[in-house]
Amino acid sequence: MQPPMKQITFSDLAYLHKRKITKKERFLAEMEKVTPFSRMEAVIEPYYPKVGTKGGRRPKPMAAMLRVYLLQNWFGYSDPGMEEALYDIEALRQFAGLSLMDGDIPDETTILNFRRLLEANKLTEALFAEINAHLAEKGLTLKTGTIVDATIIHAPCSTKNRSKARDPEMSSTHKHGQWYFGMKAHIGVDADSGAAHTVEGSTASVHDSQKMEDCLHGEEDGVLGDSAYGSKEKAEALAKKNTILITPIKAKPGRKLHDLEKEANRLIASPRAKVEHMFRILKCQFGYRKTRYRGLAKNIAQLKTLFGLANLYLLRRKLIQSEDVECVQGA
Description:
The chain contains 13 helices and 6 strands. By secondary structure, the protein is α/β, with parallel strands linked by helices. Strands 1, 2, 3, 4, 5 and 6 form a 6-stranded mixed β-sheet that branches. It is globular.
C-alpha cells in the first residue's frame, strides 16, 4: 500500500529532480517493494485509536505511523531522533508520505505512543508472524529443518542515570575470556532460506541450550546448532519426535580431534553459517548492537520487529523477482 497522498511543495520538486540516488534511497525503494504494508496495517488497525463521538484531535494516519516505526527500526533512531530526522531528511518524509507544509510530522510523544501501543498489545509478535506468513505464501520458506543460535545484545552498564543503577533485568555472562553485560537474542532460522521463524529473548546469563526448544516450530526433520546445544539428553528428546540433532564434535580431554572429525565439523559449519547472516543484518545493516530500552519485555518486542524486517531484507531480491513474475503473469 502506498503512503498517504500529500501536498507537493517546492522542496519536494527539488528533491525529485536531484541527480544522485543515495544508498538510503535505494534501500527504501527496495523495502517499499517487499514490505507487506497492507497485511501489517490490518494487524494494527483494530487497536489503533479512532476519533470518538465526542470529537477530539484526529490521530495521525496509521499507514504513516507504521512507516515511521519501520524507519525508526531500520536506522536506529530514538523517538526524539526520529522526529528530527523527519524534519531533516526528505527521503524519510517521502517514504512515510509526510510533508513539512501540511504540518503532519509526528512529534516524539506520538512516535513513543505508537510504539507503546504495539508493545502493550503484543503486536510486534503479530507483525513478525504476518511477515513470515507472507514469505511462506511466496514459497520462500520451508519447514524441513531449523538452525538455532543466540547472540549477545549489549546493554548500558553505566549507573549515571535517574535510578543510579544498571538495568536489573540484564545480567553478565562470560564468553571467550571476556565479560559481557546485557541480554541474549535466541533465534531459530529456516535451514533452507535462512529466515528467522522464531525469536526469543532472555537475560545474558541464560545458557543458549536452555532456549533451544523454544526456538523450534515442531515440524523439523533436523536441528542444527553449535557445540553449546550438544547434549545426549536433548538429542534423545528430539529423536522421540523423529528429529535429528546435529552439533559439532567436541574434543575430549586429553585427546585431539582426528582428521575425519575435523572434516565433519567443517561440513556442519557451512550450512550453520546461515544463522549468522541474520545477526549480521541485525547488527551491521540495522545497527542494533545495544539495547535501547530498560527491561526485557520492551527489548524483546523490538527484536520481533527487527528480525521480521531482517527476513524481508534477506529475501528482498527473491521477493522482488516473485512480484515481477506475478505482474508479468497478470498482464
